[in-house]
Amino acid sequence: MKIINGTIYTPAYQFQKGCLDIQGTVIKEITMNPSISNEEAFYDAKDCYVIPGLIDLHFHGCVGKDFCDGIPESLEAIAHYEATQGITGICPASMTFSEDTLTHIMTNARQYYALHNSPESKSLQTDCADLLGINLEGPFLSEAKKGAQNAAFLHKPDVVLFERLQAASGNLIRIADIAPEMDENFHFIKEVSKNCTVSLAHTAADYALCMKAFESGASHVTHLFNAMNGFTHREPGLPGAAFDTPKCHVELICDGIHIAPSAIRMAFALYGAERIVLISDSMMATGMPDGSYSLGGQPVTVQGTLATLSDGTIAGSATNLMDCVRKAVSFGVPLESAIRCATANPAKVIKASSYGSLAAGFVANVVILNPDLTIRDVFLHGQKLPTHRKDKIHES
What we know:
8-stranded mixed sheet
């Protein structure tokens, strides 16, 4: 099947007119002058952008469901909704709970992954985003910067505990979040970073300590500027340490609430599009009306796209990643950069080597965007999202 007449986002992070050739479930090639036989299926993407499916490596839920519900029905509903929004790869985040609860959450994800990746599951994969991993956000965080995390279940960094959770997940944990000041001699960072991306998160650590954490193996920053000390000219903190660590990726929540537009533009100027990962940090109210919800077992009130705990603390977002991409572009971020930060970059962080690009051999998860960046169609593994799902696409 060929997608013709579109403006295609190439593996070089640029747009060009051309044809995207899909063979079965994977990308075959991008060509400039396609030849189409009478028997060959094609899709006319005239006047549209053709981009890879987005990948959200940090979000908690949507449509009234939470990854931490720990039941397959919730993961199924989450994966359906994300796919309709052009987010075709997901790496949902946990919250801070007891080991028993986290083990149950990890086990549910392992079982869901096994079901959706078995030879008998092809029919299930046509309208669900692919589960690419788990982001373990908590319990190894600082109480001083806990944000919406539940302080009752915070835990000192523990390699053996992490390994038990990783085993329960079937090795699906791709990111392990940690406050470096809690990690004595950086033992956790040194050990876990051998096989998993370690992200500095929910931390009151200063610049010097963060630099030591990066030197010990950390390579990622969870929601830059949020749940950490602010950047100042005398104490640059984690944002400054990340800037001085070229191998490090940083997450940005571009929902228009967590970070001011000027700070987003500044971040792109400082770190460059090659190091930024756009995330939604969305919670279960995403795709739902205003009202009362929960996050990490704590009550949350949602008004518009603002989600808060009873004390006013921001509790995730109520915005999906595609809307965050649109917000970033509206704030002045070039579309080419915004797409890279929501596709290729997150794929690199979680080592999803066949996702995030329209390169030959990559999974054919493709989104067709209208000129105003609303969604026209979504392809999952080379198949257009079924009409009964496409009809449920909600766009802002």
